[in-house]
Amino acid sequence: MGNTSVYTGADGSITLSTPEGSEGETAQGVLTEYDMVSVGRVQNVQVEVTSDVKPFHEIGQRYATELRPGNIEVRGTIGRALINGAMLKLLLGEASTGRPAASWTQPSFNVTLLVENPANPGANNSVTLHGVKIENWNYNMPEDDFLMEAINFQALYLTVADAA
């Protein structure tokens, strides 16, 4: 039987991990430096999966005869109220401390979004985004509200796990 619990953002948590390889090693250095296995003070987390479905239309037919699967993109955003340079370093890697002499490795990491209702322990939902790279970083300094940073990211693929 599938998970039928309902959740709010207060039931969620975000953890980061690193894949094998030089991009993962670069990200691990940032995660270790900023103690960022668990990401805190986030809001407005959004994950979007799109499939480029291509309809095939026959001559003389108004409706598509067949829908063919196309490319799939996994992307999203995270807003964060803790400004400490970690997310910017996950975007820039070595280039965050100055201009490197040549090309450099952009960090790659995994993001796990877990929701679990404390009133119903054991029932949870997790989405793990694999091979995440940050594509842009924004810093917002309003006059009389909280300072926020926001990132947009892309992932290679995702996996889902439900526990009832």
In summary, what is this structure?
By secondary structure, this protein is mainly beta. Helices cover 12% and strands 45% of the residues.
List the helices and strands and how they pair.
Elements: E1 12-17, H1 22-33, E2 38-39, E3 42-51, E4 54-56, E5 66-68, E6 72-80, H2 86-92, E7 109-116, E8 124-140, E9 148-155, E10 157-163
Antiparallel strand pairs: 1-2, 1-7, 3-6, 4-5, 6-9, 7-8, 8-9, 8-10
Would you mind describing this structure in some detail?
The mean pLDDT is 92. The chain starts with 11 loop residues before the first strand and ends with a strand. By secondary structure, the protein is mainly beta. The strands form two sheets. Strands 1, 2, 3, 6, 7, 8, 9 and 10 form an eight-stranded antiparallel sheet that branches. A two-stranded antiparallel ribbon has the order 4-5. The protein has helices at 22-33, 86-92; strands spanning 12-17, 38-39, 42-51, 54-56, 66-68, 72-80, 109-116, 124-140, 148-155, 157-163. A hairpin with a 7-residue loop joins β7 and β8 (124-140). The protein is 12% helix and 45% strand. It is globular and about 60 Å long. The chain is built from two helices and ten strands. The protein has a single domain (9-55, 63-163), classed as Pnp Oxidase, Chain A (Roll).
